[in-house]
Design brief:
Elements (H helix, E strand, L loop, with lengths): L2 H25 L5 H10 L7 E4 L17 E10 L5 E8 L4 E5 L3 E3 L9
């Protein structure tokens, strides 16, 4: 992958990550039915959803991590670790890698009304 493509993908990942998080934050504390439905759908991502990892969005990132590691298509949700206590999310990042998040919070990008149901 060229440096320009990597830079463009990183910028896109950062923008998507913040936009998805901000859309979700806009629903919190709202009493409207659509906000409640959106929040429910966004915080319960499904396989195939465009997602962002929300635990580290404004804080500490994993070693050498970038926003490219935190945006992608959700491929798998699993229970792993000792006694299956860890919730694990596998995403296909924008640059095509399979990336693993453990005990993280994922938010789905809910982009059309039909996805709310």
């Amino acid at each position: 992958m060229t440096e320009t493509v990597t830079t463009d993908l990183l910028a896109l990942a950062t923008t998507l990550r913040h936009a998805i998080n901000n859309a979700h934050l806009a629903t919190l504390g709202r009493a409207t039915e659509i906000a409640r439905i959106y929040d429910e759908r966004a915080t319960n991502p499904r396989i195939g959803d465009l997602v962002t990892e929300a635990t580290t969005i404004f804080g500490v990132r994993h070693k050498n991590g970038t926003d490219l590691d935190a945006v992608g298509i959700l491929e798998e949700i699993a229970s792993e670790g000792r006694g299956g206590m860890d919730e694990v999310f596998y995403i296909r990042t924008l640059d095509g890698r399979r990336f693993k998040w453990v005990n993280a919070s994922m938010i789905a990008a809910v982009s059309e009304p039909t996805l709310l149901r």
